[in-house]
Amino acid sequence: MFREFTLLCKKLDLFGAELVAIDGSKFRAVNAKRRNYSRPALEEMLQAVDERIARYLETTETVDTDEEHRASDAVDRRAELARLQIRAAEVRAMLAELDETGESQISLTDPESRMMKVRMGTEVCYNAQTAVDEKHKLIVAVEVTNEATDRNWLSPMAIEAKDVLGAEQLAVVADKGYSSAREVEACVEANITPYLPKPETSANKALGLFTKNDFRYDRERDLYVCPAGQELTFRHASHEKGRDVRYYRTYACGQCPLRPQCTRNLQSRRISRSANEHVLEQMNARVAVNPQILKKRKAIVEHPFGTIKRWMNQAYFLMRGLTKVRAEFSLSALAYNFKRVLAIVGVPALLAAIA
Predict the structure, then answer these.
(1) How far apart are CA 191 and CA 171, in angstroms?
(2) In this predicted structure, what is the pLDDT of residue 67?
């Protein structure tokens, strides 16, 4: 239904099909925080229960040899011991499930929901994704995931938006949470021009040290030049977290007057570079030429989420499981688009288009 109404909006020429903003927002799931467990929490819980079981076993042996102790107390203690043993079995079963699935946490009420960071602490949530067209702030594409970050969703949302709009080329803007060389590269290959702010991932900035941005990469010679003019040449390559990484190093740091501002490494400064990092550099160059496009992002994509969550009071899901919450969010997006179109073209024009 959401897709059909989107196509109707397209017939009414309500999409600009030039710039789309992408963003994600956390929506609470039908799962209380106390019904979600991480592996460390389960391991700590199991240790505590096992220790209590050991203490109760010792106490029970003492009670059995104490003729003056009331029999009812002994029965209560054995009941409590049985309860603890059942709880230990439940925790072990949850740990075994994590081992089998490879997940880092488990939710008992809605098994597909996950604990995620929100504005105020953490909640058990789903991560809803939207792609919003600039012209009338209408939602073009939606998705719901249980991934806590947006990092893997730039190209899927951008490509879906481009397909829905039927555009030959499209510009996409998102926040730095979507920054991924792999995702940016996928967008470029699909004839989509991404605009994202450059993320600062180095801890050196907080320490007052030079960051990677202070080093200039020489593509022709495949080396970095440091602020002191020394060259960091290629040393070795490795495959880490699903990506190819090259490492560059110089051994001129020992006598360098800028060393206190550059590194605390006892040997020398090292720079890493991913195999497709050039696509991020090209994107950063585009953003430098057209920085105002980043300022448009909030005005385009955040107000639909605000309307759905606050005005429509749908900041949480009523359904459970990814399939059902995806359908539920599609209905929320449909309701938002419907209200927007009524405000833009009016009831008679919308009825005529539907007819």
Answers:
(1) 9
(2) 52
| Mean predicted lDDT score pLDDT of the chain | 89
Identify the H or E element spanning 282.
helix 277-289
Question: Which pLDDT score is estimated for 268?
Answer: 83
Confidence of residue 226 (pLDDT cuts 50, 70, 90): very high
What pLDDT is recorded for position 283?
Answer: 92
Which region holds residue 242: left if phi is over 0, alpha if psi is between -120 and 50, else beta?
Answer: left
User: Which of 325, 192, 355, 219 is closest to 278 using CA atoms?
Assistant: 219
- Helices 347-354 and 2-11, packing angle to 10 deg: 110
d(CA 163, CA 186): 15
Strands 216-218 and 192-195: unpaired
Q: Which helix (H) or strand (E) holds 160?
A: helix 154-165
Q: What is the pLDDT of residue 73?
A: 62
Q: Provide the 10 A C-beta neighbour count for residue 7.
A: 12
Whole-number pLDDT of residue 13: 93
Report how far residue 17's alpha carbon sits from residue 181's, in angstroms, rounded to the nearest whole number.
24
Write the CB contacts of 80 (distance below 8 Å, at least 6 apart in sequence). Answer: 56
Measured between its terminal Cα atoms, the distance across the chain in Å is: 16
Query: pLDDT (tens digit, 9 = 90+) per residue, 62-105?
Result: 555 555 555 556 666 777 778 888 888 888 998 988 888 888 88
3 state SS of 331: helix
Superfamily of chain region 2-31+113-191+281-354: Ribonuclease H-like superfamily/Ribonuclease H (3.30.420.10)
Query: Whole-model pTM?
Result: 0.83
The DSSP annotation for 29-90 comes to -S--GGGEEEHHHHHHHHHHHHHHHHHHHHHHHHHHT-TTS-HHHHHHHHHHHHHHHHHHHH
Upper half-sphere CA count for residue 202 (Cβ side, 13 Å) = 18
Q: For every residue of 207-257, which 3-state class applies, written as one string?
A: CCCCCHHHCEEECCCCEEECCCCCEEEEEEEEEECCEEEEEEECCCCCCCC
pLDDT tens-place string over residues 188-200: 999 999 999 987 6
